Amino acid sequence: MRVITGSARGRRLKELQGMETRPTTDRVKEGLFNIIQFDIEGRQVLDLFAGTGQLGIEALSRGAAGATFVDQRREAAALVRENLERTGLAQRGRVVQGEALSFLAGRPGRFDLIFLDPPYGAGLLEKAVEAVAGFDILRGHGIMICESSVEETLPETAPPYVLHKTYRYGRIKLTVYHREGEEQP
User: Fold this and answer.
1) Domain enclosing residue 38, as ranges
2) What DSSP character marks residue 147?
3) Were 152 and a residue from 27, 43, 60, 148 both cysteine, which residue would form a disulfide, CB within 3.0 to 4.6 Å?
4) Distance of CA 58 to CAs 10, 36, 144, Å?
């Protein structure tokens, strides 16, 4: 697993051992960043269910202003910190060890880009999408990208959140939501 492009291009990221973490494949990651390539520079990113932190780190490498990484496992949070150090991006990253839905309920501020990639089949993705929309933590014209298996059906959301498009990469699906309208207070 490596950083694809940007200031940390080519740097290898450490991975967690075992089956609890399923890193995003390079093919899916490239597709994801092709989708948002013009929406990264200077943005604030939330990498929920961070695992290794690779999505938020890729965004930082491509010019995001800052990223918050959330994972409930102590070893995952420690690994994200280590990967931020390895890539020279630690100054722009914030790591939170905690449960994702509790983090969202704590009204953590607003973000321009949100990555949701929880363990497949755990029922967490639908709850996280609904929590993001319910707490309205995406800035106006922000983007939320969800990674799931193709079998998983994601919820429609109430305006100003709109299900924009779905992309398929073999057995993996990326679902993109946009927050429309003006900036909220």
Assistant:
1) 26-179
2) E
3) 148
4) 11, 12, 16
